[in-house]
Amino acid sequence: MDRRQMVVQRVREFFGERLDDVREMVRQDRLDLRGWQEPAHVRSVMRRQQRAEGESNTTDRTATLIERVPLDVELGRTAGEPDRSQQREATGMLLEVGAAGLEKAQRGPGNDLTPEETLGLECVLLLYGRPAIQITGSGLASVPPFWNVLEDQRDLIEQTQRGVGRIEMLGHPDFDWAGTGFLVAETVLMTTRRVAEQFIEQRGGNWQFRPGMSTWMNYRGGFQDVASAGYRVRGVLGVHDRYDLALLEVERPQMNGTAPIPLALAAQPPQQRENRPVYLIGYPVRDARRNEPEAVARIFRDVYNVKRVQPGMLRGELNFHEVTFLRHDAAPLGQNSGAPILDLETNQVLAMQSSGRYLETNTAVPLYLLRDDPLLRSANVMFNEVSANDRQNVVDQVDRLARSRYWSETRALIANLYQRAFGTSEQR
User: Fold this and answer.
1) Which CATH class is domain 133-384?
2) Closest CA relative to residue 146, chosen from 19, 282, 284, 302
3) CA distance 265 to 309
4) 301 Cβ neighbours under 8 A, 6+ residues apart
C-alpha cells in the first residue's frame, strides 16, 4: 500500500459516513479564511503560518503547494507578525487541496491523488479527524465541529487535564524533560518505564535516581510557560516487571481550586473495545522514528511540546508475548509516552499510552487489567468501583451541601475526592 492509499484508508476509517459533512466543513472554513480571521478551531491546532523574510510573495503561483508550504513557510512568530492575509492564504490553500482530495477519496482508492492533494488530505485528517487541541491557561481551545462531543465534555476535560503533567529533569546531559505522567493518587504518579528510565536506574536490585539528577512535575500547558518549581518527584515506588509502567512518589498537591487532581482508573474494561470514543491528554514530542513526513511536521510544528487533548477511537486489544495491549488511533502526531487514554463517556482512564506511529494504530497499557496487581495495590492506586446508586447518593449529598453556607470553603476538597472516586466533576 503506497502513501496515497494509506491516507485514503485513514480518511474512510476516521470519518466513516460523514465524508460529505467533513468536505463541507473544509470548504466553509476555506471561505471563512478569506475574511479577517481564520476559524478558531483551525488556529487551535495549527500554528499561524508566515513567509520567511526576503522570500518570494505567497501569491506567486509558479511554485507548487508542496514547495511553498512545507519548504518556504515558517510557522508563527512572537514579534513582528507578518501580513495576516498571507498566513490565511497559506492555510486556505491546504484546505482547498484537502477538499479536492476528499472528493477523490470518495470515488476510489486514491491512486489519482496528486502530491499536493495527498498533503492537503493529511492536513484535513490532523485538523478535523484526529486533532491535537491545545490546553491553554484559560482551558481547552476551540474544538473542530467533527468533535463537538468534546465541547459537551469541556468542564470535565478541563478538570481532568489538571492531573496530567510533564516530567521535567535537571542534570540530564541531553534532555530537559522525559515525557508525560499523570496522578493516580494524591502522591503517586504513573508513567511508562521507558520514560522513567531517563532519570532512574536499577542498582543492587532497587530502582534509584541517577546520580546528579533531580526531577519534578510541571502540570502547566505550554512548553515555555513561566518557570515553576512544580511538584518534586521524591522517589521510585516501583517498576512493573511485565508492562511498560512505573510508579513514582511526588509531593502532595496543594489544596486549591486549580491544584492537580488524581485521575480515576476504570476497574472494568469498556463494554465496546472497537470504535469507542476516547481521548488522550499528553505532550506530543517530535520523533523521527514515527515516520512523520517532514512537510507535515513543519506545518504542525506548534503541536509538539505543549499539553494537548487528542481524541480518537479504540481499535481492539492485541496480545503479544502474554501481554495484552489496548489499541487506539488517537494522537497520530508526536510521541505521547505516559499519557492517559480516557473514555469519553465515563471520563475514566482506560489505559496509558506506550507506543505508536504516524497515522497508525497506537498501543497502550490497559490499566483495568491491573486492578489487582501487587505493585498498584501496594501504592494505593485507586480504581473506580462504585455502583450507580452510590454515585447518585453522592451527587444528592453534594447538591445539598452546595446550598449551604459552607460550600465555598469545602468545594476544592470535594472536587478532589469526587474526581478520584468517580472520574467526574462535582458539578455533574
Assistant:
1) mainly beta
2) 19
3) 18
4) 47, 75, 76
